[in-house]
Write a structure and sequence with these properties.
Blueprint: E1 11-14, H1 20-31, E2 35-40, H2 45-54, E3 57-60, H3 66-79, E4 85-88, H4 103-131, E5 134-139, H5 143-146, H6 152-172, E6 177-182, H7 191-198, H8 203-213, H9 222-233, E7 244-245
Parallel strand pairs: 1-2, 1-4, 2-3, 4-5, 5-6, 6-7
């Protein structure tokens, strides 16, 4: 695919890259010249499709399983080289009132969203340290900033990721490894159908209401979040360290 060249030959691992923000990010970074490892929890056709589009390689691993993550990192390094950029994007979200949600379902969100990306960071850090450089870009959420009804497990996991990123940035910046967080607002992804159903609205009704609330007057697009991630992965990355960037059209104006 045609490239912009700003990330030429950089090895990038994108978790949860089969759809939504992960898919858009993998495609955008490949357009900028990166060599992409396309992660998915299972060998889903969507993962192979994104790998084909990007010219990258599919890597199947359940990120909540440390052994699978370690093996994934080894395979990527053997095939593509040391991982220079980790985009920590994979997530699970279920919406139920706190006291109605099965505890296992609640904790699964913590194990995947937070624990899973701790596993990924553990796996890629040795290679980054050997190179003396790296980028870790954590995809958080407005929900991790302000909370949201019926999303306590997801909100807790994303808030934890935000704080993890801020703390890691302080620890790793002296080694040339830059950590930042992107916390999108409402974005047009498959998850929005779940949000709409939780609100007892059609997707069209839900988008109309959210668009009235967002100062920009519209729902965000995955490609816009991918552009923010591409900025952090490239030359713009060192400008920030431990920052929570919030591309949300003005929907959330706090940190």
């Amino acid at each position: 695919m045609a490239t912009r060249g700003r990330l030429q030959n950089m090895v990038v691992l994108v978790t949860g890259a089969g759809q939504g923000v992960g898919r858009a990010t993998a495609i955008r970074l490949a357009e900028e010249g990166a060599r992409i490892a396309v992660n998915g929890r299972t060998a889903h056709p969507k993962i192979n499709e994104v790998a084909e589009i990007t010219g990258g390689m599919p890597v199947v691993a359940d990120i909540s399983e440390p052994a699978q993550v370690a093996q994934m990192a080894r395979v990527v390094e053997e095939k593509l080289g040391p991982i220079e950029v980790l985009v920590a994007n994979a997530a699970r979200m279920t919406m139920k009132p706190f006291f109605e949600q099965d505890p296992q379902e609640w904790w699964d969100q913590i194990h995947i969203n937070l624990g899973g990306h701790i596993n990924c960071i553990h796996a890629v850090l040795p290679g980054m340290r050997r190179m003396g450089r790296g980028r870790i870009i954590i995809v958080g959420s407005k929900v991790g900033v302000i909370g949201w009804q019926n999303t306590t497990g997801y909100a807790a996991s994303k808030s934890g990721l935000h704080c993890l990123g801020v703390a890691l940035a302080r620890e790793l910046a002296p080694e040339g490894i830059v950590v930042n967080i992107v916390a999108p607002g409402t974005v047009d992804t498959p998850q929005q159908a779940v949000d709409a159903a939780d609100a007892n609205l059609s997707l069209e009704q839900y988008y109309a209401i959210r668009s009235q609330i967002i100062p920009a007057g519209r729902i965000g697009q995955s490609e816009e979040i991918a552009a923010t991630i591409a900025f952090l992965a490239g030359a713009g990355g060192p400008t920030f360290a431990g920052k929570i960037l919030q591309p949300n059209g003005g929907e959330v104006r706090c940190q």
